[in-house]
Write a structure and sequence with these properties.
Layout lengths: L27 H16 L8 H14 L2 H14 L2 H11 L2 H13 L6 H21 L15 H4 L1 E4 L3 E2 L6 E2 L2 E4 L6 H16 L34
Helix pairs in contact: 1-2, 2-3, 4-5, 5-6, 5-8
């Protein structure tokens, strides 16, 4: 009664140490993450920490095997707990284009620089975009430039009337400039979003072009939605 069931050829069915179930295309670490999520959600009071190292592999298998309830649950959780860099990595793997713009924008606007580990995760194209935009909207004045002006929000600094000590060269100067403590204005944020949305439309590759060319808005298409294109015969 306790013996393994036999198949028609007389050998044990899959599921024994001698005849394990082979899950092609599934890594042991991904499967372990999925089991951790499923077990702790249903049978344990100790919930797993919602970290990228657990969420992403579990979501990968939920997506692969069509576990719709788990897919939606983990997707909502990922949107809440993942950092901006991990959201970009997540969005690339699972083709969530609507996530790319907001996550890149936050990296462009945050006070702190990109860390080495973040740069490795982002890759060259995303790192180039973020670097370009951080330069564009907090720029030093190029040599010889006399006809282009920037608002305080885009420049990222404001003028100080008194004498200050420069944090870089330690020179005492008057007037000086301070980094803005306030976030970008709405118009600056909109300008950054337009460039990022255009970059996403271009396949996440930086192209040298006019900063103010029209941009196509990105809308997320759900798994059950159909994308329909209507062509103009006269175009």
């Amino acid at each position: 009664m306790l013996e393994l069931p036999q198949n028609i050829h007389g050998s044990p069915e899959e599921g024994s140490p001698e005849h394990p179930i082979v899950l092609k295309g599934v890594s042991a670490t991904d499967f372990e993450a999925l089991m951790t999520v499923l077990y702790t959600c249903h049978f344990s009071s100790q919930k797993p920490a919602p970290e990228a190292s657990l969420l992403i592999p579990a979501f990968r298998l939920a997506n692969m095997w069509g576990f719709s309830d788990l897919y939606n649950c983990l997707l909502s959780l990922a949107e809440t707990v993942l950092g901006d860099v991990d959201k970009i990595v997540f969005a690339r793997e699972f083709d969530l284009q609507a996530w790319l713009g907001p996550a890149h924008k936050k990296l462009c606007e945050r006070p702190g620089p990109i860390t080495t580990e973040e740069a490795r995760k982002l890759g060259v194209d995303s790192l180039l975009l973020v670097s370009r935009l951080r330069e564009q909207f907090r720029p030093p004045k190029p040599a010889g430039e006399s006809t282009i002006s920037y608002c305080q929000s885009c420049a990222g600094v404001h003028r100080s009337i008194g004498t200050i000590t420069c944090a870089s060269c330690r020179t005492r100067v008057s007037p000086g400039y301070h980094h803005n403590n306030s976030p970008h204005s709405a118009s600056t944020g909109m300008a950054i979003s337009e460039v990022i949305n255009r970059w996403v439309v271009d396949g996440c590759v930086w192209k040298e072009r006019n900063l103010y060319e029209p941009v196509i808005e990105i809308e997320e298409v759900g798994p059950s939605d159909e994308l329909e294109l209507e062509l103009d015969p006269g175009a």
